[in-house]
From TrEMBL:
Residues 23-90 form the HTH gntR-type domain. Pfam families: FCD, GntR. It comes from Sinorhizobium medicae. InterPro entries: GntR_C, TF_FadR/GntR_C, Tscrpt_reg_HTH_GntR, WH-like_DNA-bd_sf, WH_DNA-bd_sf. PANTHER family: HTH-TYPE TRANSCRIPTIONAL REPRESSOR NANR (PTHR43537:SF53), TRANSCRIPTIONAL REGULATOR, GNTR FAMILY (PTHR43537). Keywords: DNA-binding, Transcription, Transcription regulation. PROSITE patterns: HTH_GNTR (PS50949). This is FCD domain-containing protein. One of its GO terms (molecular function) is DNA binding. The keyword Isomerase does not apply. Residues 1-22, 235-259 are annotated as: Disordered. It comes from the Bacteria.
Length: 259
């Protein structure tokens, strides 16, 4: 059996004695899948196998289904009566809508933050951007990707609007669905320089410039993810053509999560 994308080692499995049902178990299901998506260990369209989720989360069948319903509501999972559950796939139009929404929401957050930020928060932002830069320079791609996404959530948190922060976090969680790059792939797009410029604009109390820089940054990211997606789809078509009719053998041998 192929290695499951939902755990990389024994330590990734649920702790002994953990509840198999209820909110705690459902949260573990959500966490296992979200982490796999964010780390690019599972591709858009991939079917979710109940046995793998049960082993990784230590959750019962009902907890798994409830967790999947929460993820479906967030747009991360698709549920089908005939095909079961799978990682959601975003069309180019959905990708555009996601980035349009991010720009509108983050513009409001950045402008507010530029008018209210204190010296302590500014130092924290600068230190955060430096940690991000170091992660990219040292080739710690998983950490670098995480910090790049976390930067935008941090801005919203500092702006002091919990509702906007939650919406931004949900939109960012869908970002890996826009691209099919593998976890070991070194990203061609690095937003660290743009993040640094945004922070300095905020430090200058120039909310308009900070918002404009953030918009340009997000549009550049949107274009890069679109290019990655196109390249990955071409690679997938080539692999499927080479594999022939047996290319999906693993999924045919496993039981998907079904309604």
């Amino acid at each position: 059996m192929a290695v499951s994308p939902f755990f990389r080692s024994q330590k990734d499995r649920a702790p002994a004695g953990a509840a198999m049902s209820g909110p705690e178990a459902e949260h573990r299901v959500v966490q296992v899948i979200v982490e796999a998506i964010m780390d690019h260990r599972v591709a858009p369209g991939a079917r979710l196998i109940e046995r793998e989720l049960a082993i990784a989360s230590g959750a019962s069948r009902s907890a798994i289904r409830n967790g999947l319903m929460r993820l479906a509501h967030a747009g991360l999972v698709e549920l089908s009566p005939n095909k079961g559950a799978s990682i959601a796939m975003c069309s180019p139009d959905e990708a555009r809508q996601i980035f349009d929404a991010r720009i509108v929401i983050e513009t409001a957050a950045v402008k507010k933050l530029a008018g209210t930020i204190g010296e302590g928060e500014l130092e924290r932002l600068r230190a955060f951007v430096e940690d991000e830069r170091e992660a990219y320079e040292r080739g710690r791609m998983e950490d670098a990707r995480h910090l790049s996404r976390r930067f935008h959530v941090l801005l919203a948190e500092m702006a002091g609007n919990d509702v906007l922060t939650g919406v931004i976090r949900d939109l960012i969680n869908r970002q890996p669905l826009l691209s099919w790059s593998r976890p070991e792939t070194e990203p061609r797009f690095c937003g660290n320089h743009a993040h640094s410029e945004i922070v300095e604009a905020i430090a200058s109390r120039d909310g308009e410039r900070a918002a404009h820089l953030n918009m340009e940054h997000l549009r550049a990211l949107e274009r890069e993810l679109g290019a990655e997606r196109a390249a990955a789809m071409q690679e997938l078509r080539s692999a499927q053509a080479a594999d022939g009719p047996d290319g999906n053998a693993r999924q045919a041998d496993e039981s998907p999560v079904v309604d």
